[in-house]
Design goal:
CATH architecture of the largest domain: 2-Layer Sandwich
Mean pLDDT: 83
Shape: globular
Distance between the termini: 44 Å
Number of strands: 11
Structural class: alpha+beta
Number of domains: 3
Number of helices: 11
CATH superfamily of the largest domain: GAF domain
Strand order of the largest sheet: 8-7-6-11-10-9
CATH class of the largest domain: Alpha Beta
Strand content: 15-25%
Radius of gyration: 26 Å
Length: 294
């Protein structure tokens, strides 16, 4: 308030001053002898975030924006001085928690790994794994929980089929975004502007004759996936393998992970996949409750 007192003292030398406060903003009404009345916005007091929580608050704002945000958007959302936001961003970049992708800031491998690790707490893991086991028992095929990372979709939990003939994708495996049911589910729930940038950076390696090799065809399918609420991989990663996936949402209805089933087409065909949609969606809601209390 010393700054305010000094300001008022200086202004009073030339004008008569009325100060009012509207919410958290102070306005000065200076009545000039020459030019009439004018208003000056003197100070805006934003809700103060403790300094030791500002980095966490910044990461939280990034999460609310699906992980990709510009510095200008951060300054607006955080309500902090420009210099402060730039300093926070520089700190997180230097420590390897965020990275620049063009004009956007995005979470790094390090931050995504941290988030993934926090979701593996023992209490929630045991309950969540049981849900996967129930779906595997119902369908007779392998069930996977898959989460996005910078270099692809990562298998973080799974329950294998009892059949000897299976496609082995153990926990920790990374698979591409453009040719997997889990990856396409992830991209379908991105914001349109973010998805456009994300898809543009994909390499579109052709693993089979069914793999998407064009951004245009992929975008069309992603639009349909969001409408129908599930994605399929029809021999796009491996020949003779079919997979289906549904999204798992957090408490803010943001995409968090994919719940997927895969198996050989000779045993797990299209009709089997369609029959699994409703059980998968129900299981997805149960997992959301376990992980986020929704």
């Amino acid at each position: 308030m010393q700054f305010l007192s000094l300001f008022f003292l200086i202004v009073n030398l030339f004008t008569s001053v009325l100060v009012i406060q509207v919410k958290n903003t102070y306005y000065v009404n200076a009545v000039s002898n020459a030019s009439g009345t004018f208003w000056v916005c003197l100070m805006h007091e934003t809700a103060k975030t403790p300094p030791n929580l500002r980095l966490l608050h910044l990461v939280s704002v990034m999460a609310d924006n699906n992980g990709h945000i510009t510095v200008v958007e951060l300054i607006d959302r955080l309500g902090l001085p420009k210099q402060t936001v730039h300093r926070l961003v520089t700190t997180l970049q230097n420590e390897g928690f965020i990275e620049r992708q063009g004009r956007f800031l995005a979470p790094s491998h390090k931050l995504l790994g941290l988030a993934s690790g926090l979701l593996q707490t023992q209490a929630s893991f045991d309950t969540r794994h049981k849900i996967l086991k129930d779906i595997a028992a119902l369908t007779g095929e392998t069930v996977n929980l898959v989460m996005p990372q910078a270099d692809g979709m990562r298998y973080v939990d799974r329950v294998d089929t009892n059949w000897g003939f299976r496609f082995l994708l153990p926990i920790g495996t990374h698979v591409p975004f453009h040719c997997t049911a889990s990856g396409k589910t992830y991209m379908a729930y991105m914001r349109k502007d973010q998805r456009k940038i994300f898809v543009k950076r994909l390499t579109f390696e052709a693993f089979t004759t069914n793999t998407h090799t064009s951004p245009d065809t992929l975008h069309l399918e992603l639009d349909n996936i969001k409408k129908q609420g599930y994605a399929m991989d029809n021999e796009e990663l491996y020949e003779d393998m079919l997979a289906i996936a549904v999204p798992i949402f957090d408490s803010a209805k943001r995409y968090c992970a994919s719940l997927a089933i895969h198996g050989p087409k000779v045993r797990f065909g299209t009709s089997n996949a369609f029959a699994a949609i409703d059980p998968l969606k129900a299981a997805s809601k149960e997992i959301s409750k376990v992980m986020f209390g929704t």
